Amino acid sequence: MALFLDTGDINEIKKFINMGIIRGVTTNPTILFKSGVTGGMEGVKKTSIEIANLIAPNPLSVEITKNESPEEMVQEAIELSKWADNIVIKVPFHGPDGELENIQVIHELETKHNVRVNVTAMMSAQQCFLAAMAGATYVSLFCGRVNNMGYNSVEELKKLRKLLDEHKLNSKIICASTREVLNVVEWLGAGGHIVTVLPDLLNKMIVHPYTKETVQMFLDDAKKL
Ligand code: G3P
After folding, report:
1. Hey, which residues are catalytic here?
2. Using a 6 Å cutoff on CB, does residue 63 contact ligand 1?
3. Number of C-beta neighbours around residue 35 at 10 A
4. What is the pLDDT of residues 123-175, one digit of tens each?
5. Looking at ligand 1, which residue's alpha carbon is closest to its atom 7?
6. Which residue's CA is minimally distant from atom 10 of ligand 1?
7. How far is CA 101 from CA 67, 72, 74, 97, in A?
8. Ligand 1: does its nearest atom lie under 6 Å from the Cβ of 31?
9. 2-224 maps to which CATH number?
10. Which of 35, 38, 64, 220 is the most buried (most CB within 10 A)?
11. Per-domain residue ranges for the chain?
């Protein structure tokens, strides 16, 4: 799996799909807003279906938009999951006021409703471990935000991967909130199964000034042959 793209920008997704270097896409309401999606839930649906079709059978993560009663969250998640077979539903680990019902929602979606869940907005190995225990297919550790708070995301990833492996939990770790090119290899090396990377960082991973110079040398010398 290794690389997902963290964007709602269709052109960027097409570009990297055509290169064959991404295995999924993640979105959230903030990303969709920044990518210019408008028109309320109809706009979200249209864009999500377009992305899902573009990347199928690879997964597209779409986030629920309300943190209300467990019944309402389950209902919204089921509705979103019907948009395409390869849609995974992002559910925040808990609500904005620390509401715990989200964990029950995650468990029910995975075990009773056959909906794959990507548990999102997590900042520690312990949160991800509990999300994995609840049955999440993916657990998203917001590594960039972990670092921003002064903690070490690499240490959290090592602890988390060890816990998942030792307890035979099948959840895949998505390392999210990329900040630097270095994050990708560093987080994969620390135990992340997947890094969801911003398009801009993926561009920067590819192009190297010394590669440019070397290729120019080959082209110049080819003319002299
Ligand atoms: O995938 C989650 C990610 O988009 C959050 O990133 O930059 O808001 O921390 P950021």
Report:
1. 90
2. no
3. 16
4. 999 999 999 999 999 999 999 999 999 999 999 999 999 999 999 999 999 99
5. 177
6. 177
7. 9, 11, 11, 11
8. yes
9. 3.20.20.70
10. 64
11. 2-224
